[in-house]
Design brief:
The protein is mainly alpha-helical and about 375 residues long. It has a single domain, classed as Glycosyltransferase (Alpha/alpha barrel). The protein is about 55% helix and about 0% strand. It has 17 helices and two strands. The protein has helices spanning about 1-15, 20-25, 25-30, 40-55, 70-85, 95-105, 120, 125-145, 150-160, 185-200, 205, 210-225, 230-245, 250-265, 295-305, 310-325, 350-365; strands at about 60, 65. The protein has a two-stranded antiparallel sheet with strand order 1-2. Helix 10 (about 185-200) runs antiparallel to helix 12. It is globular, with a radius of gyration of 19 Å. The model is unreliable at about 1-35 (pLDDT under 50).
Amino acid sequence: MMRKTRISIALTLAGTVGVIGSTGLHADAAAAPLGWDRGKAATYLDQRAAWWQAWPKAQRDADTACISCHTMLPYALSRPLLRSSLREGSAPAAETRMIADASRRVDQWETVQPYYPDAKFGAGKTVESRSTEAVLNALVLVSEGAAPTVATRALDIALAHQIKDGEQRGGWIWQNFHLGPWEDPEAAYLGACYMALTLGRAPAAYRAQPHVAKALAEMDAYLRRRAPDESLFNRVHLLWATQALPTLAPDRVLMRRTQDELIAHQHAGGGWRLGDFHQWKRRDDSAAATADDAYATGLALLALEGRNDGPAKRARAQARTWLTAHQDANGAWTAVSVNKQRPAEHDAAHFMDDAATAQAVIALLGQK
C-alpha cells in the first residue's frame, strides 16, 4: 500500500510541476503588453548561469556546482517562465545541468559532501550547509518539473531537516556567513518562506500525507510566531509565500500593516531599493546604495500580487512601469550588494544583477 501511495504521489507531482511555467501566470500579467525583451533576459540569465557553473569557486563534490542564492536559485525560479513565455522547445544547457546537479546531489545525499564542511569553514557550517541545501534543492527541483521520484525525495529530505524543538521549532537552520540578504543571521526566516513556496508548488496529494501535514503546521506556526519581529524584507517574502501556499495563516492585521508599510516605501518613480526593506550594514563602511533597484522592486511587486485594493493595484502598476523602463541593453536589470562596495570588474559584482534580473522576470511574468 505504501508503495502504491508513493507512486500515486509521484505521478501527481509529475503532472503538477510539469506545467508550473505555463499555468503560473497571473491573467493581468499575461494579457498586458510586455514592454521588455524576454529573449535578451533569457540570454543574460543563461550566460550567467553557465559562467557560474564553470567558475572554480562554485565547484562542489560529485562534479556539481553550488545552487547559489544569488545566481542559480533565481535562475531556477525564472527560467521556466521565460521558456514558456518564449515557447522554447527545450531547456537551455545551463538549466539542464542545474537540474542534473541538484538531482545527483539528492540521489547521493547520504554520501555527497556538504557545500561548506566544518573542516574548511568552521564549526557548525556542515549543519547549516546541509539544511540550506536541502531546502534549495527541493525548491529548484519542484519548480523545474524534475523527475517526480527525485522531486519527492528532495521534498522528504528538506522536511527531515526541519527543526523539531526549541525556539526555532518549525523552521530550518540556515547558512550564515554574515552576508545579507541570503546568508546572515536573519535569513533563517527567509529559508522557511522558501520552503513554504516549495510546498505550495508541490501537489496537494503530497501535502496531505500525515508527516507532511504535521511539518507544514509546524512551519506555519513558526512563520506566524516570528513574523511580528521580522524585517520588512522577511515579511515581504511571507506575503509572497502566502500566495503560493494559501493554507498559511499569518496574522491578517500584520500582513495588512506589512502591505501598507511596503507601499509607503515606494518611491516616486515606482521603484524600491533594498535598503527600504532592512538596514544592512556594509562591511567596508561604505554608504548604502540610494538608487532604486530591480531586485527590491520585483520582490515588492510579487508580494503585492493578489492584494486587490486600490493602493495595491496602483503600486503594482507603477512597479511594472518602473521595471519595464529599467532593463538594460544586455537584457539585465541591476541591483547593488548590501555587504560592500564591489569594483565592477570583480566577479561578485554581478551577483546582485543576476538576482535582480531573475526577480524582475518572475514579477513581470506574474509567477506565484
